[in-house]
Design brief:
- By secondary structure, the protein is an alpha+beta fold.
- It folds into three domains: 122 residues, Aminopeptidase; 132 residues, Aminopeptidase (3-Layer(aba) Sandwich); 66 residues, no CATH class.
- The protein contains ten helices and 20 strands.
- The strands form four sheets. Strands 1, 2, 3, 4, 5, 6, 7, 10, 16 and 20 form a ten-stranded mixed sheet that branches. The protein has a four-stranded antiparallel sheet with strand order 9-11-12-13.
- It starts with 9 loop residues before the first strand and ends in a 7-residue tail after the last strand.
Length: 372
């Protein structure tokens, strides 16, 4: 279901005297091919790759009510896009609504005119009351910090080697993701549920059967199944590549507990992206996982209290997406949203590490199939 039914409305930018229309692909499906061209141009896509293949769930027709587009009313030219994908995040068996954001683009002819901020905020506002967190991926830290989004999470890259079929263990067998047999598909879902649910502090996105079927439409990734020696069924899986988005990266995986250590040891020479601390193996380098912003104050409050049972938070106000006015154990204080998010997900400041607050760290696992 869409987050809401957005009707056409007129937005006038007085300085440039532009009359703009904000709608969705559900109401204007004729813009679908123009949208693909706009984003692929902005993201410098090669002719051999396809945006709609790499991010199939975001651009599916079922999600079209959440594909926001901005149109010049006079010329009918497509100006911008912001895609939302409503999901659920799981923390200690508790579930919270979140929204993933992706495919953000502004027509190069209209950039630098102050359009982006208003369009972006208008896209998010209707979902604000029903969302605990917003999550997006970008390298524009300065831009998104002004909008209340901060670099959060600690991601390990285990190895440096490029993946090579000639050197990978014979325990791994490549299969077709989209042509997977039903029995194999159900086994992957079962392994994923085991892998995510048996880790005490792991924070991850829920994958319902509907979500799994949407992920299966991503045709630009490669799937391998893990058959340990002397076994007749696979005990793990991993996905590598995702078109232009994640070339040569092992980005989505799962394994049964019995074979998990061997599974990651075999993959550790390669470029595996994993939440810090998940594999217990040394990493080649670390970087942040995603950008996060807060949603509704009450929803965010419930999420914080689930993350930290030692403290009780009462969120009084989230001010401009940057400062949080709260009561913590009955005492009022104001603290930056960035520092709260990093306290639980990392990366840590030197002071936080000095205070040994890493005991609050929760590995954040968002597989590459889901990053948009």
């Amino acid at each position: 279901m869409p987050l809401y039914n957005l009707k056409w409305f007129t937005m006038t930018l007085m300085k440039q005297n532009l009359k703009l229309l904000h709608t969705t692909l559900a109401d204007a499906p004729e813009y679908r091919s123009k949208l693909k061209k706009l984003i692929e141009t902005n993201f410098n896509y090669s002719n051999s790759n396809s945006l709609f293949d790499d991010f199939a769930p975001l651009f599916s027709k079922a999600n079209s009510p959440n594909n926001h587009i901005l149109i010049d009313k006079e010329s009918k030219e497509l100006i911008g896009h912001c895609g939302l994908w409503p999901r659920t995040i799981v923390i200690k068996d508790n579930k919270f609504p979140v929204v993933l954001i992706g495919g953000i683009a502004i027509n190069q002819n209209y950039q630098g005119q102050g359009l982006f901020r208003k369009f972006f905020e208008d896209c998010l506002n209707p979902s604000q009351k029903s969302t605990s967190l917003y999550i997006l991926w970008s390298d524009l830290s300065e831009l998104y910090s002004k909008l209340g989004f901060y670099e959060v999470g600690i991601q390990d890259q285990l190895g440096l080697q490029k993946f090579n079929m000639a050197t990978i263990s014979k325990c791994f067998k490549q299969v077709s993701w989209r042509d997977l047999k039903d029995k194999e598909f159900r086994r992957i879902i079962q392994i994923h549920e085991q892998f995510t649910s048996n880790k005490e502090k792991l924070v991850y996105l829920e994958r319902t059967p509907k979500i799994w079927n949407e992920l299966k439409n991503i045709s630009s990734t490669n799937l391998f199944l893990y058959y340990p020696e002397n076994t007749n069924q696979f005990e793990g899986y991993f996905f590598i590549n995702k078109g232009m988005d994640l070339p040569n990266i092992i980005h989505d995986y799962g394994c049964t507990p019995k074979y998990e250590r061997d599974f990651f040891s075999l993959l550790s020479p390669y470029q595996v992206w994993s939440p810090a601390g998940l594999t217990q193996l040394s990493s080649y380098k670390q970087f942040y996982t995603c950008f996060m912003g807060a949603g509704d104050s009450k929803q965010f409050q419930k999420l914080l209290n689930t993350l930290d049972s030692d403290n009780h938070y009462e969120i009084l106000e989230i001010m401009n997406g940057t400062q949080v006015h709260m009561k913590k154990n009955g005492k009022q204080e104001k603290i930056s949203l960035e520092s709260i998010l990093r306290l639980y997900f990392g990366p840590y400041t030197e002071q936080q590490q000095a205070d040994a607050l890493d005991k609050k760290y929760h590995p954040l696992y968002i597989g590459g199939l889901e990053s948009i």
